[in-house]
Amino acid sequence: MVTLPGHSSLGDADDRTLAGRASDGDIRAFEILMRRHEPLLSAYAARLLGSYADTDDVVQEAFISAWQQLPTMENFGAVRRWLIQIVTRKSIDRLRARKDHDDIEKHDVVSPTETPEDVAAATSLDDALSRALSSLPEEQRRTWVLREIGGYGYDEIAEQLDLPVSTVRGLLARSRRTLIREMEAWR
Amino acid sequence: MTDSSAPRGPEDRVSPLDEAHFDGFTVDQLSDYLDLARTPRDEAIESSAAAQNALAALSRLRKVAAKLIEAEAEAAPVRAPSWFKAILDQIGVQAHAGRDIPLHHDDARAHLAISEGAVRALIRTAGDGIDGVLVERSRLEGTWRPPASRSPSRSTCRSTRALTRPG
């Protein structure tokens, strides 16, 4: 008896297999990849953008762009890294568009949402860092997220944020100092 | 001296990275040293207790950072199926159809073709139907000849990978 596989068997497949199938035009495989990676990509984009409203749009645009780029994708084994890069580019585009419209204040409603007192109320070290990160000034947070989560080098961050490398280094040092102060205080 | 039992406000908090607390090294220098996995060994840094303290704190931060986004992703509300459907609807109209493969028909007025994408979908369906097989990618080899030549084009399915199904 021939049984056509449904979502269940494809859902067990690894990223490499799914990306290969998706690049061959299998939308169902792409859907599984999206569902698998969406939570992390959204959390990452939200940290970069500082706005949940923009996160929805950016991650959607990133997936559509990923689908278009699939036929030229080189390393099917590194899907997550590849998607993070696409989300980063889309997020930076969005940030630049905001800058061009000169209404940054209107968008950046979530920074800062946390105060050091909130950090003291954290229930775990993860939570403490999460709260401390929210308390950072926008540029420091963005720089730190690109470096530590996105894995970008100083030069790449400088280029993406249109800042001198020395400024990026300064922002990173300040963000690390604050984050460590809050984490150590929580411990 | 401060009373350690007194409640501490944010202004009292100290960080191992506050400039006053390590021997003249900058956070930047120490972060770079950590990025390079502490090689080549820098004796000045390695022999400074304060720098070691700062390096340990930087390492702890990095460890937690690696898990941070995953923890936040896990805590986030699950997206509604409609969110994914909106994307699928958009990409559905830009499916990777590829070239058209002409098909022969006895009636010369008929111009029939099947897209490479449709052939790949057929190969996937056929391959997946075999127990324990999940097709990964297929590569169509050969040149598509005009229908009149009647010489069949070859299609080779490469790179199939078996997937063990439970049961």
UniProtKB/TrEMBL annotation, chain A:
GO terms for cellular component: DNA-directed RNA polymerase complex. It holds the Pfam family Sigma70_r4_2. Residues 33-99 form the RNA polymerase sigma-70 region domain. The keyword Metal-binding does not apply. SUPFAM superfamilies: Sigma2 domain of RNA polymerase sigma factors, Sigma3 and sigma4 domains of RNA polymerase sigma factors. Residues 127-179 form the RNA polymerase sigma factor 70 region 4 type domain. InterPro entries: RNA_pol_sigma-70-like (IPR039425), RNA_pol_sigma-70_dom (IPR014284), RNA_pol_sigma70_r2 (IPR007627), RNA_pol_sigma70_r4_t2 (IPR013249), RNA_pol_sigma_r2 (IPR013325), RNA_pol_sigma_r3/r4-like (IPR013324), WH-like_DNA-bd_sf (IPR036388). The keyword Transcription applies. Keywords: DNA-binding, DNA-directed RNA polymerase, Sigma factor, Transcription, Transcription regulation. CDD domains: Sigma70_r4 (cd06171). Belongs to the sigma-70 factor family. ECF subfamily. NCBIfam families: sigma70-ECF. PANTHER family: RNA POLYMERASE ECF-TYPE SIGMA FACTO (PTHR43133), RNA POLYMERASE SIGMA FACTOR HI_1459-RELATED (PTHR43133:SF8). This is DNA-directed RNA polymerase sigma-70 factor. It comes from Naasia aerilata. The lineage of its organism: Bacteria, Bacillati, Actinomycetota, Actinomycetes, Micrococcales.
TrEMBL record, chain B:
Residues 143-167 are annotated as: Disordered. It comes from Naasia aerilata. This is DUF222 domain-containing protein. Residues 145-167 have a biased composition (Low complexity).
